[in-house]
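pasting input
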Amino acid sequence: MSSEQQPTGNSRTGDEYPTDASPDSEVPNEATSISRRRLLSGAGAIGTAFIFGKSTELAAQTEQSSPILDPSSDTSKVLGTPGTELGQRSPHEKISRFLRPGRPWTSGTPHEDLMGTITPSDLHFERHHSGVPAIDPAKYALLIHGMVDRPSVFSLDNLKHFPSVTSVHFLECAGNYPSRPDENTRPSRVAPLLSNSEWTGVPLRILLEEVGVDPDASWLIAEGQDAVKMNRSIPIEKAWDDAMIAYGQNGEPLRPEQGYPARLFNPGWEGNTSIKWLRRIEVTKQPSMTREETVRYSEYTKGNKIRQFSFVMDARSLITSPGYPETIRPGFVQIQGIAWSGRGKISQVEISVDNRKTWQPAILQEPVLSKSCTRFHFPWQWDGEPAVIWSRAKDETGYRQPSLDEHKASRDGRRGYHTNFTVGWNVGADGEVAYYPQEDWKT
Amino acid sequence: MKSPAQLLPKAKIIVAGSGLLFAASFSLGQEAITGSTPEDRIVVTTDQDVAIGIHPGTIEDLHDYRSNPERRSATYNLGRAATEEEISAWDIGVSPDGQGLPAGSGDSKRGAALYALHCAACHGQEGEGIPPNGALVSDGNNGKTIGSYWPYPTTVFDYIRRAMPFGTPGSLSDQEVYSITAFLLYRNDLITEDTVIDANNLPGIKMPNADKFTPDDRESYNYVH
């Protein structure tokens, strides 16, 4: 393996997905977005279509040729293709995760290309530390031992025969913020390591009760079967709360890169704790103080202290449109995006279209689920004047997503994991939308 | 967040977890982890429960489980007993008190040669790091090196044994891992060049940054209404 192929586990910022300004940080789906932009700005010149509220695509079509009058686009006179064993996306949709050169252990979810709240499984972000192991489900075993009455081995089939639960939750890496965003940072690059899925599995509590847990036990050390044997210490309360051993994702078995055939899933907690390819749980009195929970997923806070076991992901929101590289036209613009909180349900998302002078509530799409992505919409009449638009989330505990200043004050100006401050999008008089750079970090 | 002393006598909810354990272990060192009573280990502030997002009802059920031995029998009779051999094949974890450390020993002189052979290509001859692989040896700045950041010496042994050399983990003997650990601790000025480390003395090696580590404190200041 060449040195360019190494991951950056040693990044000093704590970012898992640094974005730098170099052109090679751009991504496979660039072409799609450029063409969308051309289309939009080209159509912007066609005033009449806009005034009558027609879509830009329709306006562009009318200029060239009408699909209604074009016999070659009429599919109603020929048979379509027969059923297939495996469905495919339309060949016209070039939607994909985005990679970064030299960072083989991560891929990002393209938020601006997605709708609703569920991330299609093949677009769920990836973050692993040594690649995706190839596991034969027939040879899968989960060992539970330590402070238990009956140290046990469970097969995948065993796991599926326990009572199961299904619930929708986001999964977010604690290092989910680019290190050097600039005007050309897209919405997805602001939070690439976030996805939302419906997870199915056995509640961890049920497995622990099955093996009988010593009353003095306080921690669970979960370990994967990847090439770093990824391991994290989990307080046992999480098992009694909502942790599960998941084997299903969006109605089908887990994808390999999501931990096939079974993973730990800790709703609302930093992604690294949800150990993929789970093979061992040791029940103990004390945390193991693994590398990931000491050296890696810890961050400087006030007073030169280092915060450890900061499990919960704080509330955050992301405008997915409009954002770079879109161009908008005066009139109705739907501002939309997603909001999520590791503490529970999103209670409110507020939008500012005047660079944070005033805030107005966005419409939350039902159902609003706990520790899950919620889609928000805000109908905006853009008057054509330059504007900066922002979103901020609140959750049911009363927590509000902080501003950059509030966030920095809470950690003496140092950056690190669990970055969740509000971000803005600059709308120019020409309608071009760019990321609104605001950072000015000490380190 | 309240201090552990304030909470201990009147804590109604007994929760495994973080607050006191960390407060104690961070301020008192190793002894607090191995020497404290079980009660010491499992009391946590209620602020902390909220900070880690645990629903209070589930805490009560856990408490009930702990005080009801009859809840410990198997219900579903799925799975099978694990054998000792299976457990020892997979049980590679090492804890800060040294539990799990294997037999054997090592020193930095043997470690230097092993490091040059197995590690230097990716981490640099002196552990200075080769981007994107960061440094392992502190150059006096605040980076995340073993000397400047790592809070527990046992984690060094554990991580090297479980994950390194990257791509060929498990290819080194325990003896070799001890020596490479000794070499990295020596280069970070944490032990002398000829200290022989083993399961007994490794846990006691003082890590300069350990005191800075604190449990999740977000509830106490980063709560914006």
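fyi Confidence is low (pLDDT under 50) at residues 1-15, 17-55 of chain A.
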